[in-house]
Specification:
Radius of gyration of chain B: 14 Å
CATH class of chain B: Alpha Beta
Helix content of chain A: 25-40%
Shape of chain A: globular
Number of domains of chain A: 1
Order of helices and strands of chain B: EEEHEHEHEEEHE
Oligomer: heterodimer
Strand content of chain B: 15-25%
Shape of chain B: globular
CATH superfamily of chain B: Glutaredoxin
CATH topology of chain B: Glutaredoxin
CATH architecture of chain B: 3-Layer(aba) Sandwich
Distance between the termini of chain B: 23 Å
Number of helices of chain B: 4
Number of domains of chain B: 1
Largest sheet of chain A: 2 strands, antiparallel
Structural class of chain B: alpha/beta
Helix content of chain B: 25-40%
């Protein structure tokens, strides 16, 4: 799920496609959902762009994050902050969803 | 603002209550904020520039985001962030009216504007080419300041600002 106020959608999409391919899954199975309004964000419980859900389960969830049109801050496994999730977190979520 | 344009006079309050603006020295005005991952990724590099160029040029960090919709960018949240770090080497200014961001034409956080001593815009864009690579060390910003201090033209003089859109009041 993405919001146009953040430029990280394309990179997140690439990371997700790479992770799916790496797990032997179809990278074209990704559904892109644009969140355009605060109402959309509330309805989808969207806490920021990009948000990746696999089988409805969020990658790198951040409990307590406010719902709304935000750019999401992810914490990488080396401790740095990033606009996109750690690739390992995406792979872990895919494995969790497929086992 | 376009390259060569002169910045309008401004004064904005910092987190410690003092007012800051352009003061006849070369300056980097960096629009930034508390919550954008791009601003956070470049933050240490920009502060390092402020430390390294102190005395020769000013670095002014300006947060223009609408704090009603984004409370993490409120004046209180800005002050808490600076205090949590034990102080910053550059003032963190609140542009509550968003007039300064509008006059510069800021688009994103971060969005860097380097001005010469007369307030003319010499560089506008990103701090360097990759928010994910700290080793780049804000090279475009440093290069622009070096050029301005030497009386030369930065190369590049303009790059695409990369970051979250400025959160304008609605």
């Amino acid at each position: 799920m993405w919001w146009e106020g953040c430029p990280s959608t394309e990179r997140a999409h690439e990371l997700l496609r790479d992770a799916l391919a790496g797990e032997g899954l179809d990278p074209d199975s990704v559904e892109l959902v644009e969140i355009e309004t605060e109402d959309d964000a509330q309805r989808e419980r969207f806490v920021g762009s990009p948000t990746i859900r696999i089988g409805g389960v969020e990658v790198a969830p951040e409990p307590g994050e406010p719902v709304g049109l935000n750019c999401r801050v992810y914490r990488l496994q080396d401790g740095r902050t990033s606009p996109t999730p750690d690739p390992q977190d995406i792979r872990d979520a895919i494995r969790e969803a497929t086992t | 603002m376009n390259i060569g344009d002169t910045a309008a006079h401004f004064e904005l309050p910092a987190t410690d209550g003092t007012n800051h603006g352009l003061d006849g020295k070369p300056a980097a005005v960096v629009f930034t904020c508390n919550h954008c991952p791009y601003a956070l990724a470049w933050h240490d590099r920009v502060l390092a520039v402020a430390r390294d160029y102190g005395g020769r040029a000013r670095v002014l960090l300006v947060n223009p985001n609408d704090a009603e919709r984004y409370p993490r960018d409120s004046a209180d949240a800005m002050r808490e962030r600076v205090e949590a770090d034990g102080g910053w080497p550059a003032p963190y200014l609140r542009d509550e009216s968003q007039d300064v961001a509008r006059s510069f034409g800021a688009k994103t956080t971060p969005d860097v504007f380097v001005l010469d001593a007369e307030g003319r815009l010499a560089y506008r864009g990103a701090p360097d080419s990759d928010h994910e690579d700290p080793s780049l060390d804000a090279a475009w910003l440093r290069g622009a300041l070096d050029a301005v201090l030497a009386g030369a033209t930065p190369d590049p003089a303009e790059t695409d600002p990369v970051g979250c859109s400025v959160k304008w009041r609605q």
